[in-house]
Amino acid sequence: MSSPAITSLITEEKIKARVHELALEIARTMPADLMIVALLRGSFVFTADLIRALHLVGVRPQVDFMTLGSYGSGTESSGSVNIIRDINEDVTGREVLIVDDILESGRTLTFARNLLIKRGATSSKIAVMLEKPNKRQVEISADFVGFTIPDKFVVGYGLDYANYYRELPFIGFIET
Ligand code: IMP
Ligand code: MG
Predict the structure, then answer these.
(1) Which ligand 1 atom is at minimum distance from the Cα of 42?
(2) CATH of the domain at 37
(3) Buried-exposed string 77-87: b where 16+ CB fall within 10 A, e elsewhere
(4) Rounded to whole angstroms, how far apart are CA atoms 169 and 176?
(5) Of 17, 70, 110, 156, which has the most beta carbons under 10 Å away?
(6) pLDDT tens digits, residue range 18-56?
(7) Into how many domains does the chain fold?
(8) Residue 119 lies in a domain
(9) Helices 44-56/12-29 angle, 10° precision
């Protein structure tokens, strides 16, 4: 694969500082024994940083992962959401924090939230690293948002294009 130029939008330092602020916000408003359900694959880097930031502020979460599908290998959403890999934990009676990389149309997070509530979670809040404000197809908002970004397709910090660029320590967009 040839490597197009990636323009940095949010630096590694800014991400780090914001993740620690988010951990403080979460610690203030959620119980210490919350359950994190991280949506793979895009959220794995954010989740790894967030749980360690949460540890520093006294939160002791359990963590599980769910893979939901809606995107193909390109940049357009297919519209429908399906479970590719489910969680193992029982969420009955738990306060759940759903963690995802980005809130765009809102379909993925709406599906995840409805599913966990249907399974008996007492509440489900949402933390996303990024949000694109003008792209919502479903009415949903995140409780904790790292950064609101312009309507550009971004990569890095777990976010991919065709499963590439997840390893970038910063968030950027592809020059076209
Ligand atoms: P939704 O449209 O809010 O359901 O977002 C679905 C998923 O699309 C997100 O969890 C991301 O994995 C992916 N996605 C949305 N926007 C971007 C982007 O700009 N870059 C990479 N992935 C994205
Ligand atoms: Mg995703």
Answers:
(1) 12
(2) 3.40.50.2020
(3) beeebeeeeeb
(4) 21
(5) 156
(6) 999 999 999 999 999 999 999 999 999 999 999 999 999
(7) 1
(8) yes
(9) 60
In the reported structure, the alpha carbon of residue 67 is separated from the centroid of ligand 1 by a whole-number distance in angstroms of 13
Instruction: Tally the residues of the chain.
Output: 176
d(CA 166, CA 164): 6
> Residue whose CA is closest, atom 8 of ligand 1?
71
Nearest CA to ligand 1 atom 15: 104
DSSP string, 25-78: HHHHHS-TT-EEEEEETTTHHHHHHHHHHHHHTT---EEEEEEEEEE-SSSSEE
Residue 27 is part of which domain span?
6-174
The CA 93 to ligand 2 mean position distance, Å, reads 26
- DSSP 8-state assignment for residue 152: S
Cβ of 158 less than 6 Å from ligand 1: no
Question: Ligand 1: distance of its center to the CA of 30 in Å?
Answer: 25
In whole angstroms, give the CA distance from residue 137 to residue 70.
13
pTM of the model: 0.93
Q: Give the pLDDT confidence of 2-19 residue by residue, as tens digits.
A: 677 999 999 999 999 999
148 vs 135: CA distance, rounded Å = 12
CB 145 within 8 A of CB 59: no
